[in-house]
Amino acid sequence: MLRTMKSFTHIGSNKKKTIGATKSTKKDTILETSRGALIGTEVCDTKTYLPIYRLYARIRYALPPTGVRRWRKPEPLPPDWVFSDANSQPRDYRTFGNICPQLQGEYAAVDTSEWEDVVENLMHEDCLYLNIWVPAGVPMPSEGWPVQFNFPVSGTQCGDGMQQNYFDPIDIFREHREDPRVLVSANSRVGVLGYLSSEDLMKDGMDLRTRVSESAGNYGLWDLRTALQWTYDHIHLFGGNPNNITAGGSGLITALQLHYDAFQSPENRIIKRAFLYSSAISIQPDPANSYRPTRQFDEICHQLMIDTNLPSKEKVRILREVSAERLLTVVRTLELDFLPVTDGKDGFVPAWLMQSIWNGELGRRLKQRNAQVVIGDTCSERSYYEHAGRAGIATSRPSRGISSREALMSKLKTHYPRDICDELIKKYARDITDWNSVYCDIMADVQCHAPVRGFAQCLFYGGMSTQDVMRYHIAWRPKALDEWISPGLGISHVMDIPIWFYSGWRVGFSKKDKHDVLIFTRAFSKFLKGERNGGGVIWGTAAEFEVRQFSSNGTVLVAEDQMWARKLDVWNMLREVQKGRDTPRADSVVQGMGNQWG
């Protein structure tokens, strides 16, 4: 059993200040349902003794993805599953479940155990569990509370279902007694266990009759969809409204989940609203049987001394017998990250994904079902990549400086296709010789600033309005954050967690800081509840190029997006490169609901 890595706090900071206590006490609580009984945890305020929320953790939503289930789509629970134990007694759901074995994450390079109580998450492949936080001490509406389903903010390489203390939503429940919500977050497969793909894996899981593969990749995406489906089917047992589910978190994961949901038949759609933090999708993922995933698969086989000339099923059989610990040791030596792929017939990511975004089809479908989207970014993405490269913490692999155009190309190719890399270097490099700086500019734009704006513009093109697509920009950084994160990093993705989850309440936010955060997030809380503009949500933006801005001085205002034109230029460049490829027409493919290889 592996143990988890450290938390993301104290990035680049030598100060030692402990994270504040939640000022709460805990006691057991039992929930009786038609599916059996659960022992959960009720969290109460230490001053008033009133209950704040109830947590039910380590709830299994799919069968363990171990043994022959490794690198296959998740298998749902059997129809007769129950919450209770084998003796029909309430089962213990008071502690978090295993998280997927993974490399040390983006913000986990510093040992923070001296400064905070790090949650000791155990890592094991049996990790498909979710956690549910339920309001306590407030009346439940007849239709149930709205549900906020959180996708891991760390993306595809690492992450968990809100199982660290800086994700504790206690102050969300304290501050929103008038607008309570149920929170759900799931552990899923990440990294090599969640996103390894290749033609060999595809063949191993191929049904020769239907030509559909169970092992083409995107296992982490399938996990989260399965968790979302479980939530839809059973959240009423916890007081949640299955017809009022908002899902979001990592912009990339959310964009892919939202797209998948929008192209399901009406009765199978779950997501009513979505929120995308600091990213979306701008590049069609490589096909599962293409060069990059195959090279990655072959490199792993080579490191493990598995003959790549063996039949596909034999190679995969041997790989499935390799321990997770050994796999992670091998992965640490690889250059390529594990990413979503275009995964073939009946897959999660269709070959026409980007075309259906560009031509407005996704926006049209969301508009037809009256869906809403919150999407935005922070102001200092570039400084994050600059610091991550300097500290060598981005992927827990040795950090190498970029000293030439060739080195820049090599680095970019670990993220993007060659034709896109060529155009990016043409656009950004010119006569500049500070290649590390060029790399930071490119990553900030392609990973964050360009997709956030281009994705939103395409939703507008599909017929959605500023009442449907609500854009934000965060330039505010509280002084208290200096105790945890180096001031030179500004405010970038994931560093806004103290704002969205109010964990800033416990890291020294002043009274004014809290007031400013509540002003900024008030409209977001109404959005989660399902109140539209004119009926509760006052976002304020009236034009596509406007954002609800959390300014550096703490004021909240509607402002013109200063990056709008420049970053859309990057988005358009990425689109033109991809449109020049031999891919199926989006309109014809979408109309037929086909999903073939591009």
Structure characterization notes:
This protein is of the alpha/beta class and 598 residues long. It has a single domain, classed as Rossmann fold, CATH 3.40.50. The chain has helices at 170-175, 191-195, 199-204, 219-234, 251-262, 291-303, 312-320, 324-331, 353-358, 361-368, 381-391, 405-412, 418-428, 435-461, 497-500, 511-529, 564-579, 586-592, and strands at 2-3, 24-33, 36-45, 51-60, 91-92, 122-123, 129-135, 145-150, 182-186, 206-207, 212-213, 240-250, 271-277, 372-378, 469-474, 546-550, 556-560. Strands 2, 3, 4, 5, 7, 8, 9, 12, 13, 14, 15, 16 and 17 form a 13-stranded mixed β-sheet that branches. A two-stranded antiparallel sheet has the order 1-6. Strands 10-11 form a two-stranded antiparallel sheet. β16 (546-550) and β17 form a beta hairpin. α10 crosses α14 (435-461) and α14 packs across α17.
Question: What's the gyration radius in Å?
Answer: 23 Å
Weakly predicted, low-confidence segments = 5-16, 106-116, 391-399, 584-598
CATH topology: Rossmann fold
SS element count, helices: 18
How much helicity do the residues have? 25-40%
Mean pLDDT: 89
**Structural class of the secondary structure composition?**
alpha/beta
Q: Please tell me the CATH architecture by its name.
A: 3-Layer(aba) Sandwich
Total strand segments: 17
What is the beta-strand fraction?
Answer: 15-25%
- CATH superfamily membership, which one? Alpha/Beta hydrolase fold, catalytic domain
| Text of the CATH class | Alpha Beta
> Whole-Å distance between the termini?
41 Å
Summed up, the domain count is 1
What is the makeup of the main sheet? 13 strands, mixed
